[in-house]
Task: inverse folding
């Protein structure tokens, strides 16, 4: 065994331990590989887990990720939130991850056979399900919708193929490369698109990606020494001018791309060449007798651990909470000329109090209308849930990847949406809505207020997350591919059923969920729930011959059918 492979095995063990994941070695390798090869997009563990489609009838595909303007989407419900234009960039990442010691042609052969069938726009859901598993079909249909919407709007489409394996290094022959060329040509013909990439990753490449950590401490150079002021014991502020070239340098990562992670707390993403950004672009590119900051509101940064030396300010945990459009415009349009004396106004606020930060984000973004969904994270109930989960040894991720970036175990991190889905399914006996409309759970005020009721005991909220997590872990360990394939779209149903099977009750009160003993929910209880679900699916399909595994998972009629069977059982 080579040194690279030995070191990578240690990294896999560390990845498994740190994230507290109990899965087979091949699945750990898969999660690790996808995490490393998509690191630039800063995905959450939940995003990666939801992208996995392998198992029986997977067409040789292990994972599909759908991104629009570098933001991952996972459902048609989320897709409805997007407005497509000729500036839209959509990306589909198709991964194959094999814990084998060499690259083989067989995975490529499977892809070459699969793609024309999977991405045939004339094939509907039912037709695809005769050949592929429900998880794969669900994401393929999402790809097809994003593909069509992007193409119609005149945007750009990118397709990235990734093949990761446990080989010491990339060693492939001419026949393998010929298959890669065939795959790329086939994909170009299917999507009528030239933006196709293919990448192999051996132990060596995966190790390099694993070791490529993002810089946590950055230095901002002001034009003159910034004005600094403190406010009692609550925080420090720095205000000053930063030359456009220096600010562009501050935004630039080692890869020469923009540091997109600096904008995680900004409630908007870059809006492309909308009217305001066109004006900023023109201002940047046209040097006149007006300084840039005279015409622009400037930038607001929140950070920690400042160290000022003259005109330079070193800061950690940097978040640009206002000025994203200006920042992207400077990055995209300024030529980096250090002799350009124009500058942008920058405010740096040193504060690590979460409530204060939330208020700053809301206040600095209040000049334009903002979707209420994007601001849920700032509400008091959400902050209180975060504190409660933290005190219980878990992490409520009000803002994506806040705790991932702190190195907390993935198995204990729960997003707002994950929590909302778990509660909707288990508390409200509504797994089909939780499955079909995850974004709407947060978007609709009535539904949101039902789910996040501050009068409820937060222990019940946490237990719903833990039941869902434990059920999903049991599901991941299913060995029988037919059982796994049949139930892939019913993970929320399984968690819901498991809570009832564990307590041997058809109706469970919120108080009972609050007092739920998780140790009672074991493999035996899960197996009973799984068998019950499979039997119920089969019975429903006998009665409803047009029902398939995807529309059943979103069907209120199927949920009612399950409830009838539970009433008969208990």
Result:
């Amino acid at each position: 065994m080579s040194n690279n492979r030995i070191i990578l095995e240690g990294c896999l063990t560390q990845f498994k331990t740190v994230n507290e994941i109990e899965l087979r070695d091949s699945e750990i390798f898969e999660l690790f590989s996808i995490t490393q090869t998509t690191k630039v997009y800063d995905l959450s563990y939940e995003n990666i887990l939801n992208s996995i489609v392998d198992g029986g009838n997977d067409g040789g595909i292990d994972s599909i990720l759908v991104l629009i303007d570098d933001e991952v989407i996972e459902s048609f419900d989320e897709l409805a939130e997007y407005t497509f234009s000729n500036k839209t960039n959509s990306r589909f990442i198709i991964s194959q991850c094999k814990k084998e010691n060499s690259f083989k042609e067989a995975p490529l052969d499977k892809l070459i056979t699969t793609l024309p069938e999977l991405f045939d726009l004339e094939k509907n859901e039912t037709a695809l399900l005769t050949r592929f598993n429900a998880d794969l079909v669900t994401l393929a249909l999402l790809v097809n919708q994003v593909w069509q919407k992007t193409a119609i709007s005149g945007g750009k489409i990118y397709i990235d193929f990734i093949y990761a394996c446990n080989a010491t290094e990339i060693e492939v022959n001419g026949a393998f490369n010929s298959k890669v060329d065939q795959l790329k040509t086939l994909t170009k013909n299917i999507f009528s698109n030239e933006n196709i990439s293919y990448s192999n990753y051996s132990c060596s490449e995966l190790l390099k990606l694993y070791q490529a950590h993002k810089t946590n401490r950055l230095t901002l150079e002001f034009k003159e020494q910034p004005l600094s002021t403190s406010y009692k014991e609550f925080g420090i502020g720095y205000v000053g001018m930063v030359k456009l070239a220096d600010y562009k340098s501050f935004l630039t990562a080692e890869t020469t791309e923009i540091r997109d992670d600096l904008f995680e707390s900004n409630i908007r993403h870059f809006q492309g060449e909308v009217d305001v950004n066109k004006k900023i672009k023109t201002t940047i590119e046209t040097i006149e007798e007006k300084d840039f900051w005279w015409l622009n509101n400037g930038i607001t940064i929140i950070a920690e651990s400042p160290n000022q030396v003259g005109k330079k300010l070193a800061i950690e945990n940097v978040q640009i909470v206002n000025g994203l459009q200006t920042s992207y415009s400077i990055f995209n349009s300024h030529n980096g000329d250090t002799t350009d004396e124009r500058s942008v106004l920058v405010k740096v606020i040193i504060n690590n109090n979460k409530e204060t930060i939330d208020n700053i984000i809301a206040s600095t973004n209040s000049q334009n209308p903002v979707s209420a969904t994007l601001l849920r994270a700032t509400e008091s109930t959400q902050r209180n849930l975060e504190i409660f989960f933290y005190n219980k040894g878990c992490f409520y991720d009000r803002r994506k990847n806040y705790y991932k970036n702190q190195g907390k175990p993935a198995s204990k991190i729960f997003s707002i949406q994950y929590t909302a889905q778990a509660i909707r399914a288990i508390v409200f006996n509504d797994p089909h809505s939780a499955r079909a409309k995850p974004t709407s759970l947060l978007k609709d005020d009535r539904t949101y207020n039902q789910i996040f009721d501050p009068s409820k005991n937060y222990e019940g909220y946490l237990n719903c997350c833990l039941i869902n997590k434990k059920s999903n872990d049991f599901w991941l360990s299913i060995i029988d591919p037919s059982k796994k394939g049949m139930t892939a779209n019913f993970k929320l149903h399984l968690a819901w059923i498991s809570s009832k099977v564990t307590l041997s009750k058809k109706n469970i009160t919120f108080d009972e969920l609050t007092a739920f003993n998780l140790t009672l929910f074991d493999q035996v209880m899960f197996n009973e729930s799984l068998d019950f679900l499979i039997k119920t699916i089969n019975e429903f399909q006998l009665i409803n011959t047009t029902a398939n595994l995807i529309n059943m998972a979103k069907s209120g009629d199927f949920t009612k059918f399950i409830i009838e069977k539970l009433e008969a059982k208990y």
